[in-house]
Amino acid sequence: MKKILLIFVLMLLMIADGYSQVTFNTGALQVNVSNYGRIRLLTPSGTRNLQRATILVGTTPTAVFDYTNDAGTVTPAVLITNPTLSDFEIYNVIDNSDSGLPPDVTVKINAYGWTNGSYTLVKFNIKNDATTPVNAVIGLDIIPEIDQTYGFDSVTYNSSAGVIRFHRGAVTNMGMKLLSASLFSLHSFEWYDGYTVDADYWNWMNLGTLQPEYASNTADGPVTITSQNPIALGPGQAYDVFYALALGTNEQTMLANISAAEQKYQSLFTSVGGIKPAVTGFNLGQNSPDPFNNSTTISYQLPEDGFVSLKVHNIIGNEVAVLVNSSQTKGSHIIDFNANGLTSGVYYYTLRFGDQVRSNKMLLIK
Prior knowledge:
By secondary structure, this protein is mainly β. Helices cover 12% and strands 49% of the residues.
């Protein structure tokens, strides 16, 4: 049923907007991006294996940006003619103009591909367009379509490799891996009409658990929701999220292709000479104890001397404490956070050093 509805909707959209999507073919994989930020993976011959992967950005239980309800086109998807980082590249910009509802975000999407590579790197640059700070929970809404067929497939999390595996039996495998952070939540369920509700998205994205396996038992098939730890974004601030996506004739081949994509990410975006060097040795630990009653300890590591900011925000993005706002020396640091005067609930602490940002969640129980 879902396949029929999706095909019908797709046909209507194609008539209405003149095939508003762009594709590149590496010789081993096709990557398709629509004007509204929908990403698809296909075999070189055109067999679809990913119906869609789309960005999710949540800031409160009633404010989650998603493809179905919110995405409007700022810059239509375009194939870059002379890409500098890869052999193929698609660029697209979306925002919340279709609904006009919060969160107010702009998302720039770059999909990169390499000749004969059965993998792609996708970068999402999420910018806070609101006039107030937000704690952004960022993830993906994923609908697999293995061998262009829905249903009775499985979603398995390979914890050692950090890879989400979509498969039906031992044949065609699709994999995804969050490269720029650690997964915070991973949850799958059986597709149903109307699942794209902000409150439900928010709950799935904030489960804080990684579901080891989900087996679809209907012809509708699974929907998978991912997320990472919240990121504190001030007005006008942006944050990059990278995912690797790959296909393989079996699990081993798919994992090898994910590994190849990860190597591209490491060489292009995190190493010296890359366009956005990462600060090695920059880490933010989980507070201890957590949950905590009144006080807790936060540890972090700096790769070199420099200016550091460590702040605490509540669940709606209001700043409640400034723990550090000064220059500090290279190495490990520990600071105590006293929550006197604060009410029970979820809080976020965010460490900033240069252009690097780390954020974790903590739970205060009084």
